[in-house]
Here is the input.
Amino acid sequence: MIKQRIGRKFLTSLLILLMIKMKIENFNIQHYPEVLELWKKAGIGVGSSDTKEEIALIIARNPELFLIGKEQEKIIATVIGAFDGRRGYVHHLAVDPMYQKKGYGKAIMDDLIERFRKKKVHKIHLFIQKQNKKVVDFYSKQGWEIRDDIIMMSFIPDNTLYKRSLDEQKL
Here is the structure.
């Protein structure tokens, strides 16, 4: 039963991909300038962990989980997946505003989730800014649940490294 449900969901995603003509592939550091612009265009906040050097570290650890979606060689969607050996994490799902509401976000997320399944990831987490109701609604429709039993906290171990915005530092 579970295999059938996973199989159907994956096949549905493949059909969506065929209909929308988006090719999903692994991110390569050469894509960085275009992906950075996409993040900005889509309203993703980019900070000190999004420099080219930091992104290179991400792809060194999880090269098959950082995905881009292309239509006619133009990057129109991206998502960063990370796996720490126990849990999966999703960062920076972005779809070019000209291509939103057409299934691209769901398609690239479904591909990432399938990759997590193959790694036997038990649970996947993501972070959304509270005021971003559209994004909360998007994920809720995909079956994600809002957690009210945990509080997310952050700690900055080195204030010289962390910057909330890339504009505060040199690229």
Notes: The chain has a mean pLDDT of 87.
